[in-house]
Here is the input.
Amino acid sequence: MRVTFPHMGNLWISLKAMLTYLGVPVVVPPPCNKQALQAGAKWAPEFACLPLKLNLGNFIQAREMGADTIVMAGGCGPCRFGYYAQVEHVILRDLGYDYHLVVMEPPEKHIGELLQRIKYITGQKSWWQVMQGIRFGFRKACLVDRLEKKAFYLRPREKRRGATEQALQAALSILDAASNWEELEEARQRAWQLLEEVPTVHRPVLRVALIGEIYTLLEPFANLELEKRLGEMGVEVDRSIYLSEWINDHLFLGLVRGMRSSKAFHQAALPYLAHFVGGHGQESVGSAVYYAGQGYDGAIHVLPFTCMPEIVAMGILPRVSQDTGMPVMSLIVDEHSGAAGVQTRLEAFVDLLARQKRSKGALA
Here is the structure.
């Protein structure tokens, strides 16, 4: 068995750590790229969203690298993501890619269904060893998120353009290389030090929240490196979703204390959207309210073309913007999105925010 999984930002570091810790052979696909997108878009249904197409491209490339088993998340509710694993598997089978599919999703009848799937992947490892592997992977997810947050702060303040990105990629490589707890603690210190050493200058910055669908928020290829582009424009960003927070909310049921929970976003959304609409639709509305309350200058709502929950949110966000006074821009992405068009829209939005802040005397 050689296991692969789809890319979603730096998720691969955590998943690879967990599986490797348990002795499971792993094939990490190449980072999302143009070739993967072209392959996925060629064979996927036309109106499927961008995540499905990129996942499909990841699996095609991983199969050519020797992978034979896919581990994929599942789900339930109005969002179409719940059946994407099965759709992708059928397409791959029709193309001659013989994969075994293991879908990690809420069990239909009893917890034994999920435990059986986990045991298929981990083999003869004891449940204690499995829990330690999950804990190791989660720890890496937490450290990755901490590094990303530090990079969000540094980018608009860096003295030399690109220094933060260079340090971040080196730090992530150090974390990835750690294979046990002792190495991970040493890697944590070295990785953090790399970012601490990035030279900065004091300058006024704008603060923009990135909200929306989880995949297009976390995967830089899908959002055309939105975080990096904004940072280089002098904007400090924050995301409404971080991987470790999502894991704690949805897999650990909030058992890890001291972490931000999406429950705050659900509560904030109630005056505008009082029920679940699938995916992260309700969270997108609530997070806009939340960040406005935190004094952010603006928000960018990122979503894949045809994403039903986020289309609902997009229809409500103009009212949230009007009520809170915080500008919100929606950015829809698919395989036809171009860097030049996105750059132009971002520059116009950032200019609007800067002029608005200057009019209040808050930006020198």
